[in-house]
Amino acid sequence: MIGSARSIHDEAAVRLHGTGQRYTEQRRRLIEILSRAGSPMSIPEILRCRRGLPQSSVYRNLADLETAGVVRRIVTDEEFGRYELNEDLTGHHHHLFCAVCGRTSDVRLGPHLEEQLDAALDTIAREAGFADVRHRLDLIGTCADCARRFEPTDATG
Amino acid sequence: MIGSARSIHDEAAVRLHGTGQRYTEQRRRLIEILSRAGSPMSIPEILRCRRGLPQSSVYRNLADLETAGVVRRIVTDEEFGRYELNEDLTGHHHHLFCAVCGRTSDVRLGPHLEEQLDAALDTIAREAGFADVRHRLDLIGTCADCARRFEPTDATG
DNA sequence: CTTCCTGCAAAAGTTTTGCATTAAC
DNA sequence: GTTAATGCAAAACTTTTGCAGGAAG
Questions:
Q1: Most buried of B49, B79, B110, B130 (most Cβ within 10 A)?
Q2: Residue B120 CA to chain centroid, in angstroms?
Q3: Model-level pTM?
Q4: What pLDDT digit, counting tens, does each position of A132-153 carry?
């Protein structure tokens, strides 16, 4: 997690300039949306919450922001991708997502378990001859709302 | 992991019949391909290795096999999905995939770490009000071949 | 004033579906 | 004989790209 002396917007601008790109109004809006959401957002969601953003520009800008290391694209079981701020801006975390409605939220493991996991995965990666290995740990389940909707506790339907 | 008294094909047939579906020649072939591969296969790969399988039937059959609980669709960072035999047929495992070429292989954690992880994730899921939670732990890196190809150890390039 | 960004429309990619025919039970 | 599976083609879906006009540095 980056020091907070710089705002997220300043940091985004610096990283974009580093790859010869500009921090335009639309890119600022995207960062603002992702920053406020606090959990990964799909492009359909972004387009729905902000009418007036053309989808091709949103796809292109998110791809550029990913190249600059400001955002990250993640995959779930859904048919479309989701974007979130890069982990070095928000801290290492994992995802809990609902298999029914797609709701996604961030969760964090205790540092002790995370270290053990890292050590075990590093060993596995080394044995397989893999380099630059990172991990992705997600929880997939049914959120409370969807559980209520589809599996009521009494039988009155 | 299911007892081995039944072959994978018998088990597949039983599960398909349970959902009112038939175990046809093409479905048997798909199971055979996935079983021999030993790691998740994409549909393009399946179509390439077995000419004569129409893609719409492959998509449909894999979806039916997933409904019957025989195979599982997984997502990687690639643009298409991959299929593998269901975990209760092959045992719980994780995936190591190459971000460059897409090569995917199975890896297993030690039982001790897996138990700790399960316990921690169960707690997290309960606190978030999620039910029926399973986890997905993947390693993403650069395989040895791709590392050689793109980051040679000497500078003769 | 040069380079990059924007926005529209069209294309590319994977995945799904309609429908007539064929195969399984 | 009834129901489900097949295979072709066409559609739906997310995502990418070409290009002319506009904005940023």
A1: B130
A2: 24
A3: 0.89
A4: 999 999 999 999 999 988 766 5
CATH node for B1-90: 1.10.10.10
CATH 3.30.1490.190 fits B92-157, yes or no: yes
The two tokens of residue A146 are 């969807």
Provide the percentage of residues in chain B whose pLDDT is more than 90.
78
A24 touches strand C (CB under 7 A): yes
Residues A96-111 as b/e (b if ≥16 CB within 10 A, e otherwise) read bbbbeebebbebebee
Q: Write the residue in A117, A132, A143 that is nearest to B142 by C-beta.
A: A132
Closest by CA to A16, choosing from A56, A66, A58, A60, is A66
Q: Which residue stretches of B41-127 are H helix?
A: 43-49, 55-67, 87-90, 111-127
Distance (Å) from CA A45 to C1' C8?
Answer: 21
Tell if the CB–CB gap between B107 and A124 is shorter than 8 Å.
Answer: yes
How is the beta sheet containing A82-85 ordered, strand by strand?
Answer: A41-42, A82-85, A71-74
The answer to whether B102 contacts chain A (CB < 8 Å) is: no
A139 and B130: CB-CB below 8 Å?
yes
Q: Are A122 and A133 in contact (CB under 8 A)?
A: yes
